Amino acid sequence: MAPGWANLSATLLRGGGVLAGLFLLWVGFVTGGFFLLLTGFLGALALIGGWLLGGLMTRESWYERPNARPLSIVLVIGFPLMLVAVAQFAGPLLTPPPNLAACYSGTLARGEERHEPLAVDPRIDSMVFRLVIHDVTGGALRYFVADANGESVWSGRPDIAGTYESDQIESHGGQWMVNLIAEAEQSTYQLEWTATTADGQSGVPHCP
């Protein structure tokens, strides 16, 4: 029969591993899946590692050791610290750099629409949209950008060719949507998206 301190250590390791694993998986989904590979790896490590270490605590070959009790305390305290250390090492490997630019171009006839999803990384701090209308005949080209909450953050309805640029838009992570609706006989356009991270990295759109 394992002593009380061994059972307590096993409970803390197993319970802590389950809670940490589920929390990490939840964080991965809440951030729009951008960090799901990292949080999924850490969550699996927390679940499996916590369960295996908890099982070790209740083995007679472990708790009969002279130094088993202090070592158990070290493992209970050190296991979450180990997860933090692994996250620091694995983060750059399992988290790809954020996409900081995009370009959409084409020609729309009257009544045609284009709706492009735009995955905005949580690490992005701000962004700018720039619409270049090369030609618009017999009407207007309506556009609007909706953020992850479905709210329009930039919109317009120009009926002449030209360049239209947004102000700096504060960013928040999630799935945004770029919408273009042709109310003209023909509209030829190029829409660029450029983002900047908090540490000053900026993207350059590569348009055809």
Q: Into which percentage range does the β-strand content fall?
A: 25-35%
Secondary-structure element order, as H and E? HHHHEEEEEEEEE
State the major sheet. 5 strands, antiparallel
Report the mean per-residue pLDDT as an integer. Answer: 91
Rough outline:
rod-shaped
Question: What does the oligomeric state look like here?
Answer: single chain
- Rounded to the nearest angstrom, the distance between the terminal CA atoms is 72 Å
Radius of gyration: 26 Å
Second CATH tier, the architecture of the largest domain: Sandwich
* Named CATH topology of the largest domain: Jelly Rolls
What is the count of β-strands? Answer: 9
Low-confidence runs = none
Report the structural category.
alpha+beta
Tally of separate domains: 2
Architecture blueprint of SSEs:
Blueprint: H1 4-30, H2 36-57, H3 60-63, H4 68-94, E1 101-109, E2 113-120, E3 124-137, E4 141-146, E5 152-156, E6 162-165, E7 169-170, E8 174-182, E9 186-197
Antiparallel strand pairs: 1-9, 2-8, 3-6, 3-7, 3-9, 4-5, 4-8
Helix pairs in contact: 1-2, 1-4, 2-4
Q: Could you walk me through the main structural features you see in this protein, from its secondary elements to its overall organization?
A:
38% of the residues lie in helices and 33% in strands. It has 208 residues and is of the alpha+beta class. The protein folds into two domains: 4-94, no CATH class; 101-197, Jelly Rolls (Sandwich), CATH 2.60.120.380. The strands form two sheets. Strands 1, 3, 6, 7 and 9 form a five-stranded antiparallel sheet that branches. It is rod-shaped and about 85 Å long. The model has no long low-confidence stretch (mean pLDDT 91).
